[in-house]
Each structure stands twice: as C-alpha cells, then as structure tokens.
Amino acid sequence: MSHEIQVTFDAGDPAALAQFWAEVLGYRIQDPPAGFDSWDAALDAFGVPPERRNDASAIVGDGPRVFFQKVPEGKTAKNRVHLDVRAAPGLAGDERMAALEDECTRLVSLGATRLSRFEPAPPLQGGHIVMADPEGNEFCLD
Asked: How far apart are CA 138 and CA 8, in angstroms?
C-alpha cells in the first residue's frame, strides 16, 4: 500500500511562509474549495472570523502538498527534518556550485538567509548550501 504525504510547517505567519515556499518550489497557493471564487468568500461562508484567517495556508505543485499551520511559539532549535531543494540536478563541480549560488541569491531576495556553504567532496558529496526560510527553518540547496 502506498500513501500520499503532506509536509507540514509550524509557522507564526502561515500566509507569508506559504508565499515564500510557493516561490521557492514553483508551487501555487491552493485554490479555494469548489463553488467559491476566493478564500475570503469560503471562510465567510464557513463562519471563520477575520482574526483566524491566517491560521493555516497550503501550497500545491508537482510534489507533495505543503501545509502551514499557525502556532504560538517561535522556532527554538535546529530542524530534525529539512527539505533539500534540488537546484542543480545533474551538475557537478564549479558548474553545480555556480547554479546553487544563483539560486541562493534569488532566495535571499525573497527573504531567506544563507547559513553556510559546503564545498564538493567527491566521490560522495556534490556540495550544497544551507539556508533558512524567513521563520528560521533550515533547508539545503542541493
């Protein structure tokens, strides 16, 4: 039996973090339920008060759905699980690292933080860049 997966992030601002990750992954904000032109219209119909409308957000694309849920506490420790954003598949050496640097620059402009760079160490390590999203969740450009 196979199962679908969803990746879930705890967040202080689900809408903003969803928009950031949609840009990173080439995803889009999930459409509102059938029969509604917008999320506001759906949430009005469901009786969700305005102060609760940023309690959750989701993005969809070619991979798993990514869900963002509001939590009261901020991030306090290193992630035990993280995403590897495959920004240079099939590339090696200087060409690979240049592609990762280009993507790093783009993501920093969206609000990410560059944390560290690991140089290629053949035969097993191709090199990667460790980053954090706007709420401090670590991820790798790989």
From this structure: 14
> Prior bond to 50 cis, omega within 30?
no
- Tell me the domains of the chain and their CATH numbers: 6-70 (3.30.720), 83-141 (3.30.720)
Question: For residue range 44-73, what is the model confidence (pLDDT) as tens digits?
Answer: 999 999 999 999 999 999 999 999 999 988
Torsion of CA 42, 43, 47, 52, to 10 degrees: 170
How far, in Å, CA of 64 to CA of 73, rounded?
Answer: 25
| pTM (2 d.p.) | 0.88
113-118 and 83-85 strand pairing: unpaired
Q: For residue 77, which amino acid is it?
A: A
The pair phi, psi for residue 35, each rounded to 5°, is: 95, -5
Q: Give per-residue pLDDT as tens, 95-115.
A: 999 999 999 999 999 999 999
